[in-house]
Amino acid sequence: MTMHKIAVVQMHPRPGELEQNHLRAVSFIREAATAGANLVVLPEYHLGDFYPENENFRKQCVHYEKYLDAYCALAKECHICVVPGSFAELHCNEETQEERLVNCTYFIDHDGAILGRYEKKNLWHPERPIVTGSMHDAHPCFDTPLGKVGMLICWDLAFPEAFKELIAQGAKLIIIPAFWRLTDAYDVGVKRNPLSERVFIDATVAQLKKGIWVTPK
């Protein structure tokens, strides 16, 4: 069995400071590569690009390609696979001028090539008025230097059918960038149990392992 070394980056993005957050992410990727990691995974919205209360919020979401290209170049330079967390991407239909904001992640291989792309389907409460969930039915699974990989984002982990679909396609690794805080339980939940979000995630992951981590026949 081939063993892979994976670096999972924890960072708290500063709202609206895309360039500064990107530079911090770059330093983490370089550190992971130096430590011999085969893959580094950044958090969801790691650029601090999802803060709707910021008046420049939507303008910032147009520039995701600049950072995606930079990560591709860095992956090739450091010879490391990169999942750059997720980006808030603002797309505009040229014909209808209709705008669509999505939460999207990518798998970049160690040669800087994009091997996979995934748009979040199941949105968390603050996203729902603003972000469009993926319109595609299938969960993509694709070949990478680490084997077959599937990707989800944050709240997607609460839906076992997504895992089943990916495993049925042969996924050996499922990557889930997330931006999750203890305060996401809101005042009522935090008052009842300050660690309620941690308990929820631990229980959810445990159930997934117990219930569906079986190779399909």
UniProtKB/TrEMBL annotation:
CDD domains: nitrilase
GO molecular function: hydrolase activity, acting on carbon-nitrogen (but not peptide) bonds, in linear amides
Domain CN hydrolase intervals: 4-217
Domain of life: Eukaryota
Hydrolase as UniProt keyword: yes
Alphabetized InterPro entries for the sequence: Aliph_Amidase/BUP, C-N_Hydrolase, C-N_Hydrolase_sf
Protein's UniProt keywords contain Hydrolase: yes
One Pfam family this sequence matches: CN_hydrolase
Keywords, alphabetical: Hydrolase
Annotated protein name in UniProt: CN hydrolase domain-containing protein
Species this protein is from: Penicillium cinerascens
